[in-house]
């Protein structure tokens, strides 16, 4: 028996009964992957589609799709109905879903799982294989041109013929063209969590294109964020109604408080879901566009050590916007073997952890906040945690941050670092903790 | 961090920023050759994306791999100046290559199986047959004309940033005061009609001149260039080369301008081996030519015109992605011009773009472990690097190199995955003895992204353009 919440139920019903291309916005923890897998199963099991394509951005996300399908369908049915295609070393062999790139095998299966990158191989064979429905995940980080590889596999020549006959049809964008050529796709993503890498400010992501040119709906119930954090994320990113699922709303970190050093007790305080450790470290330049902050890196590692003492079974993730900071933190952690993941905001997309430590890195007298000032990066950083979020960095820097002017020379409309700092500092959704001497 | 260090990093950052706003395209020798055949044909590839061949070059690639190892092994070891019995010598080289050939075939089959690629039943026979043919070409023609070189290096990637030119040369034979350039073709050259192979060879010769003389126009070290093919060898005459070099330059500029998004009119040759013979791509070529004509005549329907503009915007966004894959090389080249090689390396080392002082530790056939001088290696797993062996008196971006991805960094040890087991063997033979630097690099995965845009462009034409206009 599959339980669907009202949002999921509404969207599933809508997508089953409507064709064309449409968008589903999935705020953090709203179960986009689960929803995609369920939609695929529903479509094929109830005869709405003969063949469904599930497209993910990365191999790990494609494996997540496979895992969800295996859980819902069971090993035998998933083995019979599904196939994982693309880059063989990237596929999870422990799952019952077989791997193949052979067209004959793919044609026999009803659900095909693939990454966007590997799909290019399959799209060359578009005349030989067609999918009458597709679900494309994480479209916020893709550009429109990346969506065209899956779309090619959904073209219905009959639709094209009908289109030719109805000359009055208005088509103004590639999305509309694909839609009217018979492509049926649910494009899932969240423009408030991701932007295409290295894109200009005025470039739209694939998700934004879909939202602009097609209908869309939003999932509002998060299964990851406890109440305080869900409210913070909702207000920070302006989701207009993101709430925690009842069963997780009151979830709090459970630790052996007595084992924590006194200086760290306020930081790890399990009663507060969000804690801001106000630390005045110095930023340093690295590489063509990266930064690091050694004091923050050391503080993060030290906090991890304390948490591991008090709650060894909890998963911890350190998130940063900067690859260099990730490298420095990983280097410090390497010697300790704590099993803590260190990810950049781009890499953290689609992941979660019991405890998340977010290191801001930037701190300068000019208050130039740079790339970390974007809505998407800040949103991802604060929305990965299931029980506790610890923000490490200078509060003053964030309260007075000057966001980067975008390339058109205009001031951005919103000051997101300031908004986040204000939401936490007014003790609305969190607590500010002065850095103890040991971390300074 | 001292002020000087910050200044150095800022300088590198500014160079990156300024280059991000400009075009950092490099034209490959193979693309120049295509443009030489017909400029429209090049545009079919870029920016239209109409030609993305479905052919799997498994046999050709395997033969290339075999040649890249055997050339510096059994071939050079058995080199005879003007051999008396070519057949006997061919047989001897083939026999001695047996272990290499079988090993590479096994690896290829293994990889093809893992990737579910189609392998023809007679794969092994065809690879062996082609290899035998190439060796026969070398003994019969090349050894007849030229003496044993001092050294052979294979699969050499050369980037000439100033001339926006890059290419991968199959083999370079080095002599006391000159070089010979080889290109393998696994098919019978006498049956080809376009002359594309010749232009690719000459374009690569310009790159080789840059490597050996620091100037592509300096032919003083050029001894010969040659295409070894299935049944023999083709040596272009020096008069032919002189005549064609200008054509190469014109088409290189054309290709670069097209990639940069400039409006350049393609010149159709008197005879186009694709369109005039109705080969693969001719229909697409005519489609885009008709599109351009209708646009100039103002006869494109408004909706189609609007969509076409969107298609081109997306195409050039993809091409910009392609240009960005060459960004690190451009920065390196600019800094070398500004400060000289040593200072450029020093500055880029500070920013983590270049790492040096590495020595080869060991390998397990697929992965290579290198040792650094200290524990602070600024690279992370999944980053792509170009491992460059510094050769004396050669521009750094023309030295022997291999591309690799970082697998693991622990203390001063870095584990790298090269493209294949063959690349590891090749690197051990010709790269790891040299002083090594590692330059950050990127993979170019953009080409196949253009194909779906072409498909939708054609669909839009099919829907919106009246049949009468389509036929005209």
Please summarize what this structure is.
The complex is a heterodimer of chains A (440) and B (472). Chain A is of the alpha/beta class. Chain A is 39% helix and 17% strand.
Key words describing this protein structure:
heterodimer, A: alpha/beta, 6-stranded parallel sheet, 39% helix, 17% strand, globular, B: 472 residues, alpha+beta, Lambda Exonuclease, Chain A, Elongation Factor Tu (Ef-tu), domain 3, 6-stranded mixed sheet, 6-stranded antiparallel β-barrel, 15 helices, 12 strands
Number of strands of chain B: 12
Oligomer kind: heterodimer
Overall mean pLDDT of chain A: 90
Question: How many angstroms does the end-to-end distance of chain A come to?
Answer: 53 Å
Derived from helix and strand composition plus strand pairing, the structural class of chain B reads alpha+beta
Largest sheet: number of strands, sense, barrel closure of chain A: 7 strands, parallel
How helical, in percent, are the residues of chain A? 25-40%
Q: What does this entry look like structurally?
A:
The complex is a heterodimer of chains A (440) and B (472). In chain A, the strands form four sheets. Chain A has a seven-stranded parallel β-sheet with strand order 3-4-2-5-6-1-7, sandwiched between helices. In chain A, strands 14-13-15-16-10-17 form a six-stranded parallel β-sheet. Chain A has a two-stranded parallel sheet with strand order 8-9. Chain A contains 19 helices and 17 strands. Chain A is of the alpha/beta class and 440 residues long. In chain A, helix 2 crosses helix 3, helix 3 packs across helix 4 and helix 14 crosses helix 15. Chain A is globular. Chain B has 472 residues and is of the alpha+beta class. Among the domains of chain B are: 193 residues, Lambda Exonuclease, Chain A, CATH 3.90.320; 113 residues, Elongation Factor Tu (Ef-tu), domain 3 (Beta Barrel), CATH 2.40.30.270. Helices cover 51% and strands 18% of the residues of chain B. In chain B, strands 1, 2, 3, 4, 5 and 6 form a six-stranded mixed β-sheet that branches. In chain B, strand 4, helix 7 and strand 5 form a beta-alpha-beta unit. In chain B, helix 2 packs across helix 3. The longest helix of chain B is centred in the N-terminal third of the chain and has 29 residues. Chain B is globular, with a radius of gyration of 24 Å. The mean pLDDT of chain B is 91. The chains are: A alpha/beta (440), B alpha+beta (472). At the A-B interface, helix 6, helix 7, helix 8, helix 9 and strand 11 of A face helix 1, helix 10 and helix 14 of B.
């Amino acid at each position: 028996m599959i339980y669907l919440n009202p949002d999921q139920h509404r969207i599933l019903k809508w997508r089953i009964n409507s064709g064309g291309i449409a968008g589903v916005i999935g705020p953090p923890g709203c179960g986009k992957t689960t929803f995609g897998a369920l939609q695929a199963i529903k479509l094929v099991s109830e005869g709405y589609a003969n063949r469904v394509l599930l497209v993910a951005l990365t191999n790990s996300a494609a494996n997540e799709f496979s895992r969800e399908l295996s859980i819902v369908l069971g090993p035998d049915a998933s083995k019979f109905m599904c196939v994982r295609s693309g880059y063989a070393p990237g596929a999870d062999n422990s799952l019952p879903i077989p791997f193949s790139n052979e067209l004959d095998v793919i044609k026999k299966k009803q659900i095909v799982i693939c990454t966007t990158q590997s799909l290019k191989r399959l799209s060359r064979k578009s005349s030989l294989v067609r999918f009458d429905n597709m679900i494309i995940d994480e479209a916020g980080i893709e550009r429109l041109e990346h969506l065209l590889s899956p779309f090619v596999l959904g073209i219905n020549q009959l639709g094209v013929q009908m289109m030719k006959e109805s000359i009055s049809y208005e088509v103004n964008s590639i999305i509309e063209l694909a839609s009217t050529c018979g492509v049926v796709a649910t494009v899932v993503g969240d423009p408030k969590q991701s932007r295409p890498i290295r894109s200009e400010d005025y470039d739209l992501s694939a998700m934004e294109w879909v939202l602009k040119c097609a209908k869309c709906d939003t999932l509002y119930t998060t299964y990851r964020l406890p109440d305080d954090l869900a409210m913070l994320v909702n207000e920070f990113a302006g989701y207009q109604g993101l709430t925690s699922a009842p069963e997780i709303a009151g979830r709090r970190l459970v630790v052996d408080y007595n084992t924590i050093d006194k200086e760290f007790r306020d930081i790890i305080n399990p009663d507060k879901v969000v804690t801001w450790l106000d630390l005045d470290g110095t930023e340093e330049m690295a590489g063509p566009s990266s930064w690091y902050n050694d004091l923050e890196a050391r503080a993060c590692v030290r906090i991890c050590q304390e948490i591991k003492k008090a709650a060894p079974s909890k998963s911890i993730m350190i998130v940063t916007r900067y690859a260099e900071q990730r490298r420095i933190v990983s280097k410090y952690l390497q010697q300790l073997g704590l099993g803590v993941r260190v990810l950049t905001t781009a890499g953290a997309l689609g992941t979660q952890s019991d405890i998340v430590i977010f290191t801001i890195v930037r701190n300068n007298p000019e208050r130039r906040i740079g790339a970390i000032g974007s809505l998407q990066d800040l949103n991802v950083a604060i929305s990965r945690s299931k029980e506790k979020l610890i923000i490490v960095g200078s509060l003053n820097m964030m309260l007075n941050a000057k966001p980067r002017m975008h390339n058109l020379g205009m001031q951005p409309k919103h000051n997101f670092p300031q908004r986040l700092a204000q939401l936490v500092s007014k003790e609305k959704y969190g607590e500010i903790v002065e850095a103890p001497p040991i971390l300074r | 961090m001292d002020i000087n260090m910050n200044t150095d990093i800022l300088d590198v950052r500014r160079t990156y920023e300024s280059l991000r706003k400009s075009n950092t395209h490099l034209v490959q020798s193979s693309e120049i050759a295509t443009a030489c055949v017909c400029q429209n044909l090049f545009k079919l590839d870029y920016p239209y994306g109409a030609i993305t061949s479905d052919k799997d070059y498994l046999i050709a690639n395997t033969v290339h791999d075999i040649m890249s190892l055997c050339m510096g092994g059994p071939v050079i070891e058995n080199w005879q100046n003007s051999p008396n019995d070519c057949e006997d010598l061919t047989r001897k080289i083939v026999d001695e290559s047996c272990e290499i050939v079988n090993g590479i075939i096994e690896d290829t089959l293994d990889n093809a199986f893992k990737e579910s690629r189609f392998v023809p039943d007679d794969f092994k026979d065809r690879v062996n047959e082609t290899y035998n043919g190439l060796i026969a070409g070398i003994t019969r023609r090349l050894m007849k004309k030229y003496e044993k070189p001092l050294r052979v290096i294979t699969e050499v990637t050369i980037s000439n940033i100033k001339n926006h030119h890059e290419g991968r040369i199959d083999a370079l034979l080095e002599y006391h005061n000159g070089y010979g350039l080889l290109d393998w073709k696994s098919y019978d050259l006498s049956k080809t009609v376009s002359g594309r192979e010749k232009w690719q060879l000459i374009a690569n010769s310009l790159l080789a001149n840059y490597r050996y003389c620091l100037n592509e126009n300096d032919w003083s070290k050029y001894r010969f260039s040659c295409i070894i093919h299935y049944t023999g060898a083709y040596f272009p005459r020096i008069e032919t080369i002189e005549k064609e070099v200008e054509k190469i330059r014109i088409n290189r500029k054309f290709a670069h301008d097209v990639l940069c998004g400039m409006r350049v009119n393609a010149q159709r040759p008197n005879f186009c081996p694709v369109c005039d013979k109705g080969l693969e791509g001719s229909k697409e070529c005519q489609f885009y030519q008709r599109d351009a004509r209708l646009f100039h005549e103002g006869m494109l329907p408004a909706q189609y015109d609007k969509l076409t503009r969107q298609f081109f915007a997306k195409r050039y966004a993809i091409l910009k992605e392609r240009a960005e894959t060459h960004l690190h090389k451009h920065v390196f080249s600019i800094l070398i011009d500004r400060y000289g090689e040593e200072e450029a390396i020093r500055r880029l080392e500070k920013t983590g773009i270049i790492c040096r002082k590495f020595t080869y530790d060991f390998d397990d056939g697929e992965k290579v472990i290198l040792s650094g001088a200290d524990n602070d290696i600024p690279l992370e797993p999944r980053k792509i690097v170009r491992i460059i062996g510094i050769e004396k008196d050669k521009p750094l971006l023309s030295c022997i190199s291999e591309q690799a991805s970082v697998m693991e960094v622990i203390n001063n040890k870095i584990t790298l995955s090269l493209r294949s087991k063959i690349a590891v063997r090749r690197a051990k033979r010709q790269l790891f003895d040299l002083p090594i630097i590692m330059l950050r690099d990127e993979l170019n995965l953009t080409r196949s992204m253009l194909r779906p845009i072409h498909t939708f462009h054609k669909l839009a034409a099919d829907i919106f353009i009246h049949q009468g206009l389509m036929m005209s």
